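Predicting holo structure, alpha-D-galactopyranose bound.
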Amino acid sequence: MTHREFKSTGIEEQAAFLARQFEARYGRAPTWLVAAPGRVNVIGEHTDYNGGFVLPMAIDRYAMVAAGPVEAGDGVGEREWFWVSEQTLEPLRFSTDEPIRQGLPAWGNYVRGVVAGFQDRGARVPGLVAVLRSTVPMGAGLSSSAALEVATAMLVEETTGLRLEPVEKALLCQRAEQEFAGVPCGIMDQFVSVMAEADALMLLDCRSRVTESVRFDSEDLAVLVADTLVRHALTDGSYAARREQCETAARFLGVGLLREATLSQLEEARLRMDPVLFKRARHVIMEDQRTLAVVESIRYGDWAAVGSAMYGSHESLRVDFEVSCRELDLLVDLARSLGPEHGVVGARMTGGGFGGCTVTLVHTNSVEEVSAHMTRHYREETGVEPVMFLTRPSGGAQVLRTVTENRSRYFPELNRS
Ligand code: GLA
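Done. Tokens:
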């Protein structure tokens, strides 16, 4: 892996590139340009829908949309949405004049779902033409879908003037994913895409929906994302099955949410409980504890404790929650085998699981060595070249450009910090 691959292009460059693509296609500059980031979750996995704690950060990779009102000659109806995307061949087209339903192409359901959510709130959504470009790898556990939903919400806000509070907006996007994509997801991904702060992790209490910023800006620490390239859609039911098992376990323990159960309560119920439900509940209860402990450890700079919590989380996801896979385990083991002597703080799978990515915290001057080691051994064992990139905690979704009759904002709030 070369050094060049570590760098992701800045948001300004990505935006300028997309604006040029829009111009090339439509012969005019885009009226709106919005961006919403993907995320990596540092710890707190499969806890969000149990009302627990999560500690994600937004990454500097975005779903970005350049759009403009429909003009004569575009070949698009006045109240139609027409999107093209670099990543997929099939454009998205639907009318905002009639009730919006799920349809093809499948990626468009994230967009449709969000527009439908705004319509339910009384928004009259005008037609538009748009070019989408996402640098969040798809289906990799980095919330490419939440990024697309949140970018769509930003765009609808700009085009209709109906602006939502951040929490409402995130919840609207979550509902779009649940109802239009059929994944009964929690709130983590959409919350962090909307509300993340640069240079900080976001501690989110998923029951109260209160967020707290955890500074994470040391030049000495890098966040290395490693993609197994194994893809397993969360729509296939394994995610929904985990959620259901958690709900059943909570009912068995007599609590509304697993977040409210204690380890001693669980131990006490052990013999009466289905062993699978027991394991699922143990993961959730322990993962909440680990997440809160990691926040404290980061504040004290106790990186050894952060590392062991990350490995503990991975183990628990592998054994108790059963959402890991051989390739994720391999990448975590490879990082772990290098250990602190070679600059590795900790590693674990990130996101829903069944493939996707690991997150490794590594000291900056060891990045080359660690990634070379992981790449080489992963390739030898699997025959596949993993994709690796460095990222840093980035800000949440933003409007990069919006032009109105007497007001024009060009890339105004870039690098908000
Ligand atoms: C997916 C879901 C999130 C969360 C994670 C697992 O990313 O969208 O809500 O449940 O899986 O932590």
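Residues 1-7, 406-417 have pLDDT under 50 and may be disordered.
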